[in-house]
Design brief:
The complex is a heterodimer of chains A (111) and B (112).
Chain A: E1 5-7, E2 10-14, E3 19-24, E4 31-37, E5 44-49, E6 55-58, E7 61-65, E8 71-76, E9 85-93, E10 96-101, E11 105-110
Chain B: E1 5-7, E2 10-13, E3 19-24, E4 31-37, E5 44-50, E6 53-57, E7 65-68, E8 75-79, E9 88-95, E10 102-103, E11 107-111
Parallel strand pairs in B: 2-11
Antiparallel strand pairs in B: 1-3, 3-8, 4-5, 4-9, 5-6, 7-8, 9-10, 9-11
Chain lengths: 111, 112
């Protein structure tokens, strides 16, 4: 069974701080996606990375896919209370359609 | 297009009853997925369709669960003889190119 492990599970920080969350696996994925989920809602796609070593930036968020396509990280600069939520990584397996999700990192940013 | 729509948003049922959920995907998307999410966990894969064909089912999908996608449009997920362990958020998602899902808001099932 392919597993994606996310760390940390919980993160509580003050507004303006920087943070990094990690997503690790022993398996290779064809793509890696990051989602953000708010309570009572479905996850919302933030980014998809497909090439080993790829780095994508989305305003204050920086996503990196590991060279071996087994791990990924999400870095948030100058966090804001609006960044609060559950951050999920999900690995794709090419032609097989379904994604495998990690358990998520619950982020709380206090004003 | 208004995105992926799921109905109902909430469902409370007594143990042993049958329930059915509906998902309307984005019209251009040929793939449709069902996931289940419990508190503190990430979404767990249940099943997926490409057009009307059900291509994969998880071992989580017991005999009490059945999903359909007639004519490759909307999909239904039925749970027969519900158990308390079925209480969860049931999420539907669709995509076209396997580069990112669009999720619905989910159906929260509570079995009492």
């Amino acid at each position: 069974t392919q597993l994606l492990e996310q760390s940390p599970q919980f993160l509580s920080i003050q507004e303006g701080e920087n943070l990094t969350v990690y997503c690790n696996s022993s398996s290779v994925f064809s793509s890696l996606q990051w989602y953000r989920q708010e309570p009572g809602e479905g996850p919302v796609l933030l980014v998809t990375v497909v090439t080993g070593g790829e780095v994508k930036k989305l305003k204050r968020l920086t996503f990196q896919f590991g060279d071996a396509r087994k791990d990924s990280s999400l870095h948030i600069t100058a966090a804001q209370p609006g960044d609060t939520g559950l951050y999920l990584c999900a690995g794709g397996r090419g032609s097989q359609g379904n994604l495998i999700f990690g358990k998520g990192t619950k982020l709380s940013v206090k004003p | 297009d208004t995105g992926v729509s799921q109905n109902p948003r909430h469902k409370i049922t007594k143990r042993g009853q049958n329930v059915t959920f509906r998902c309307d995907p984005i019209s251009e998307h040929n793939r449709l997925y069902w996931y289940r999410q419990t508190l503190g966990q990430g979404p767990e894969f249940l099943t997926y369709f490409q057009n009307e064909a059900q291509l994969e089912k998880s071992r989580l999908l017991s005999d009490r669960f059945s999903a359909e996608r007639p004519k490759g449009s909307f999909s239904t997920l039925e749970i027969q003889r519900t158990e308390q362990g079925d209480s969860a958020m049931y999420l539907c998602a669709s995509d076209a190119l396997n580069y990112g899902y669009t999720f619905g808001s989910g159906t929260r099932l509570t079995v009492v």
